[in-house]
Design brief:
six-stranded mixed beta sheet; globular; 215 residues; alpha/beta; 6 helices; Rossmann fold
């Protein structure tokens, strides 16, 4: 799915990301952890091709469909429902096909009652859930999430974790297994979702280990 070789991202003559080797396989759910400034967001943006490599390579499979949810919501000044319907349409669905997908996505995020509300007038947590639904409705092969649960209460976080787990483990034929890479400051949330944890410090990987499934 993704291979990184001798990656260096340098800003103002200072290295902010230094990864010698990293492989993320299809179907993995990888949680990135570390303090502020450790390189989590930079790595996510590099995986999406939004930050050019100063040196090294980020290699992904051909025709990989990628969606990213940023910490700051990227929503249009339209209703919550229209934001999702447009996302589905841009992903190749017809306008009519998109309608039931929108309702299901809003319901999964606990936002169905807010379908007609302006997205930009929603609370921070509601906008975060809508942004996540907007990414999921595009059915990406690789989903990159920057602090996706940071503004959510415990109930909403649990709901989103269940939705993301269902997205990865959906029981139907897929072109390729779905993969998620997300950043978080919460150990509990990361353990609840991730199959693998990568810890970063000063732009370097200091730990990379699988998450043991609870019995």
């Amino acid at each position: 799915m993704i291979r990184i070789n001798s990656l260096r991202v340098i800003r103002m003559q200072e290295p902010i990301l230094q990864i010698d080797s990293l492989h993320i396989g299809a179907g993995e759910v990888v949680g990135l952890m570390g303090p502020n400034g450790s390189g989590k967001t930079t790595l996510l943006r590099a995986l999406h091709g939004l930050i050019p490599e100063s040196r090294g390579q980020v290699q992904t499979e051909l025709d990989l469909r990628i969606a990213m949810v940023f910490q700051r919501s990227q929503l249009l000044h339209l209703s919550a429902g229209l934001n999702l319907r447009l996302a589905a349409w841009f992903a190749g669905r017809t306008w009519q096909e998109a309608r039931p997908l929108v309702d299901k996505s809003l319901q999964n995020m606990g936002l169905l009652d807010l379908r007609e509300r302006l997205a930009t007038r929603l609370s921070g947590g509601q906008q975060q859930r809508l942004s996540l639904a907007k990414a999921l409705i595009r059915q990406p092969d690789l989903l990159l999430l920057d602090e996706p649960l940071s503004a959510l209460d415990a109930e909403s976080s649990t709901q989103c974790i269940q939705t993301l787990s269902g997205f990865v483990n959906e029981n139907r034929p897929l072109t390729r297994p779905r993969t998620i890479v997300f950043s978080s400051h919460s150990e509990a949330q990361t353990l609840a979702l991730a199959s693998r944890i990568i810890r970063l410090e000063k732009g370097r990987i200091i730990e990379d280990k699988p998450v043991r499934a609870s019995s």
